[in-house]
Amino acid sequence: MNKLYCIKNQEEFQGQKYLLKAKDYFEGWYFKIVGNNGSVAIIPGINLNSKKKKAFIQLIINDQSYYIHFDMKDFKVHYRPFQIQIGNNYFSEEKISLQIEDISNDLYLTGEIQFSHQQRIKKNFYYPNIMGPYSYLPFMECNHAIINIKNTTHGSLTVNEEILNFDSGIGYIEKDWGTSFPEKYIWCQGNNFQTQSASFMLAIATVPLFFFKMRGLICILNYQNKEYRFATYNFAKIKKFKANDNEVNITLKKGKYTLTIKCFCNSSQKLVAPVCGKMEKEILESISASMSVTLRKKDQIIFSDTCENCGLEIVSE
């Protein structure tokens, strides 16, 4: 698998060259789905380091989280189109199929969810994905890609005899890979706005680059088939940044456009994130956050709406 192909097809498994090496590495896909009677986040992935290699699935189901370990031999990859398998669980851009029995966590989960009408972000040679030209740097500690920023879901999951219905639900798929998550970052995402059809994602992180650290920005609002992108590499600026454990208030500016984001949560669940290839940093994520987004062109409001069941992570150290 040549490097240029991997950069152009970031949804596919990037870590093939590390499987037989004693090198710190992680790779994980993130599926978030909002349905009629519940929300879920599902994160299949692998963790490689000099002492251990393992696969895992992390889950947030309404107000509960789970971290399930698998042997590395249970992890299988298919390319073109991409599909990964962990045990009896299958993940692709078209569907996920789950069959999990975790007695230690008292979790019994089965079901299938199909994805259609995938909405992808714009790509070109300069923007192979959301990280833009930084996608070409081989030493980034964490790489990020949006597989599709919005999709329509169909299907259901049965969780300990409770059925979660995702017919006509809304999904989102992204991924990360590298050695470590950023030491400080905020991330928020929402695509089920109250009155208008739109999709949104924002991440601001402290990123090591060469011999210094920078605050990197990536943000996209898709509205009426138009993409508004604010990023470090297209000279967008962070004009306001306030954050505490439960809330963020951010204003971005690029040229004539100003984007204001407010997001807060009342409850979060525990996930485990990678540090130097080891899954050992505990973070908190909400999939029930509330968000408001307003986009202005000079004094004209182009978009303003609120969104529920949003994803929000605030990591301060």
Largest sheet: 12 strands, antiparallel
Name the overall outline. globular
Approximate helicity band = under 10%
Proportion of beta-strand residues: over 45%
Helical segment count: 1
Q: What features would you describe in this structure?
A:
The chain is mainly β and 317 residues long. Helix content is 2%, strand content 64%. The longest helix has 6 residues, at 3-8. It is globular. The model has no long low-confidence stretch (mean pLDDT 93).
Write the layout of secondary structure elements.
Blueprint: H1 3-8, E1 25-34, E2 39-48, E3 53-61, E4 64-71, E5 75-78, E6 83-86, E7 89-92, E8 95-102, E9 107-119, E10 142-159, E11 162-165, E12 169-178, E13 185-190, E14 198-209, E15 212-223, E16 226-231, E17 237-243, E18 247-254, E19 257-264, E20 269-275, E21 278-297, E22 300-315
Antiparallel strand pairs: 1-2, 1-12, 2-3, 3-4, 5-6, 6-7, 7-8, 8-9, 9-10, 10-11, 10-12, 13-14, 13-22, 14-15, 15-16, 17-18, 18-19, 19-21, 20-21, 21-22
